[in-house]
Structure formats: structure tokens, C-alpha cells
Specification:
The chain is about 35% helix and about 25% strand. By secondary structure, it is an alpha/beta fold. The protein has a domain at about 35-160: Rossmann fold. The strands form 2 sheets. The protein has a 6-stranded mixed β-sheet with strand order 3-8-7-4-5-6, sandwiched between helices. A 5-stranded parallel β-sheet has the order 2-1-9-10-11, sandwiched between helices. Strand 5, helix 4 (about 90-95) and strand 6 form a beta-alpha-beta unit. About 30% of the residues are buried.
Length: about 240
């Protein structure tokens, strides 16, 4: 079976080699979209003034790059007093690309909105927060908690998903496609306006893509992650096993 996976080929391919040897699967990795920073012109349309904020919330490396790119384009020198609240340690460490890490006030959580809000102790409650986000992303989980804590915040869209050209892909040749982001569904529509699912089966990886696929009227053969399918490769393995 030919399988299309909407991501870059992983550096560690071992888990996928098993799918090839055990099931004879033919795997194609193809990103359906890329994350790009907003231009200064696009960002100005949000009517957000960067100097107004004393703290910034990052949940991705893309947002970090976009923020500092905007600061440069808009000639805003980020003050050394800026406080950075990051979703994880990995995101926080990425700040080293743009600032001298040890000289800044940097805090990081465990990957959940609640862990970020927990970092905002009484010492930081007076800050004005800019919560960075991607266009179309669901910020309700974090903004609900920020509001409940009585924090002063604004959501700023810094990055957007841009559909890639997939018109050279023959979807009819695939028996299975794994989609991992709602933007994958958007790209599917952008590239194949008259697309009908037919015999193509979908595996969704992530709750948000489930909503996008179902909203588009597509059937999902397997939803992941689950305790049994913690990775894309494992989800594909479980699906292929179900066919035997």
C-alpha cells in the first residue's frame, strides 16, 4: 500500500522501516504546508504596539523567530527587562538564537497552558503579556486561564500556515494519507478543489485535525494519538494490522 504522510521525512527512520519490511508499505513524506512569519505590514493590521508589552508568551520556535524578525523590521529594540514565558524548556532554550540567555528573565512550563499560567506568580501579575499565536490556532485554552487569573494580555498572530504546491501528487495512487494539522486539510482543498475521498483512508494525528477532517465531510479510519498509537508510525502500523 502507498501511504502519504504530511510531514518531512524523519531523521530517525527506524520505526518506518518496520512498516516497509513487515507490511510492504511504500511511504512518501510530503509537507502540505509551511509555517511563515507575518510581514510587518500584515502584523500592523492587528493594531498591536510591541513596545507596550513587558512579557511575551511563546509556544513554538516559529513564533520566536517571527517575533524577533518583526522587532527588527519595525525597529523595536527589545529591552533587557522583557520577561519570556515559554511552553517548554526546548522552546525556552531556542531563545539563545536571538538573545543572551543567561542575562534574561526566562521561565518555562511543561507543555500545557496551565503550566505557563502557574509561572505567573504574584511577582509577575503586573506585567502586560503578549501571547503569540499562529493564524487560525485555538488560543482559548490559554486565554481562558489568563482571564481567570486576572492577567492583562493580548493575543498576537505572528505566523501563518502557507499551503505548498502538491499538484504533482497523484492522490488516487495512495490507499492511506496521514494528516497532522488542520492546515493540511486547507492545503488539500487549495491544491485539489474537486477532491473526493473515494477509497482513500485518513489517519488523523491530533484532535484539531479530527475536527477539520470531519468538518470537511471526510471519514477517518483511525484517530491518534492514543495510548496504543503514540506516534504516527505506530498509528499506521495499527491500521495496517487491522487489514490483515
Amino acid at each position: 500500500m502507498k501511504i502519504l504522510i504530511s510531514q518531512q521525512m524523519p531523521s530517525n527512520f527506524a520505526a518506518y522501516e518496520k512498516l516497509q519490511s513487515q507490511f510492504g508499505a511504500e511511504l512518501d513524506f510530503r509537507p502540505f504546508f509551511l509555517i511563515e512569519p507575518l510581514s510587518a505590514k500584515e502584523f500592523r493590521a492587528e493594531h498591536i504596539s510591541l513596545p507596550d508589552y513587558t512579557a511575551i508568551v511563546f509556544s513554538s520556535r516559529h513564533a520566536i523567530d517571527a517575533y524577533f524578525k518583526l522587532c527588527e523590521e519595525m525597529r523595536f529594540k527589545v529591552p533587557e527587562t522583557m520577561k519570556y514565558f515559554c511552553s517548554t524548556e526546548a522552546v525556552a532554550m531556542y531563545l539563545q538564537k536571538h538573545i543572551v540567555y543567561r542575562k534574561r528573565k526566562i521561565f518555562y512550563g511543561t507543555g500545557t497552558p496551565a503550566s505557563i499560567v502557574a509561572l505567573v506568580t504574584a511577582k509577575h501579575k503586573g506585567e502586560k503579556f503578549l501571547i503569540t499565536a499562529s493564524e487560525g490556532s485555538n488560543t482559548t485554552p490559554i486565554t481562558t486561564l489568563f482571564s481567570a487569573a486576572g492577567l492583562d494580555y493580548t493575543v498576537g498572530i505572528l505566523v501563518k500556515a502557507v499551503s505548498q504546491d502538491l499538484k504533482d501528487v497523484d492522490l488516487s495512487s495512495y490507499g492511506l494519507a496521514v494528516l497532522c494539522n488542520p492546515a493540511d486539510v486547507v492545503s488539500l482543498h487549495d491544491n485539489f478543489p474537486g477532491f473526493a475521498q473515494g477509497d482513500l483512508k485518513f489517519i488523523s494525528f491530533g484532535k484539531a485535525v479530527v475536527k477539520a477532517l470531519e468538518g470537511a465531510g471526510y471519514e477517518i479510519a483511525l484517530q491518534a494519538p492514543t495510548p496504543e498509537a503514540t506516534s504516527i508510525s505506530k498509528a499506521v502500523e495499527l491500521y495496517l494490522q487491522s487489514l490483515q
